[in-house]
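Dear Dr. L.,

I hope this message finds you well. Following up on our conversation about the binding site, I have prepared a predicted three-dimensional model of the protein together with hypoxanthine. For your records, I am including the exact sequence and ligand specification that went into the calculation, followed by the structure tokens. Please feel free to forward this to your student if that is useful.
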Amino acid sequence: MSTRSLSEMIEEAVKAIRQYTDIVPETAMILGSGLGSLADQVENPVEVPYKDIPGFSVSTVHGHVGSMVLGTLEGRNVAILKGRVHYYEGHKMESIIFPVRVLHALGAKTLVVTNAAGGIRQDLKVGDLVLITDHINFMGANPLVGPNDEKIGPRFPPMSTAYTPALQEVARKVAKEVGFTLAEGVYVAMSGPSYETPAEIRMLGRMGADVVGMSTVPETIAAAHCGMQVVGISCVTNVLHKGPSTDTHEDVLKAAAEAKPRFINLVRGIVRELGN
Ligand code: HPA
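The resulting structure of the complex is given below.
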């Protein structure tokens, strides 16, 4: 067990990143399965492998690479997490949210979180992008369990506006400008790694969930805890209203790749608008 405090660990990670670059990101992004190529569009990129950042864990999942890319996008300073670690890989919740805390300590005020998700609601189709308006944490764990560091955030942080309403408006406006329909919905996080059974899909729909995935919620809780604004976007990679997914992880990556141009336009537009 480490004897260093969380604040010291965050400081060490920031120091390691500062060996590479002085960029202060305005906006941070976490890119989900198959959506990582946006990081290739960053100008003057500085890429820091997770293995060089103390406290960062490396994902074992195919399609998830591990590095932080800092640079500019749409004229704004950004930091992008290419790949994330998941609860189902066996990582502790505190490891999953550590990068969010480091992004905040680097200066980021806003977090864009993206993921691949299964569509529960009837009208959702493969390739749809869904603006996350709220979430249900059904992972069976909360990332803030344990001692609370008041320097980072409050013991009992509210989640009523975790997905910042003003940023939802920005996303709607950008989608309209880009010219595609942005669906909206509630994201439920399951721990995974097994996909949902038919009974679980029925239950999740009745609970009020529109899309289901295995990520994003811990990071959003951590971001809201430390006072960051959050905007979340799911890419529907498979639909569940006709029954459980038989899709492989490769199918998920393929569907995400198809939605990529719209997704990239949306996220770039959001980044551009955020500085205004
Ligand atoms: N269920 C859970 N997570 C997912 C799915 C799904 O159907 N698709 C992509 N991530």
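In brief: The radius of gyration is 17 Å.

With kind regards,
A. P.
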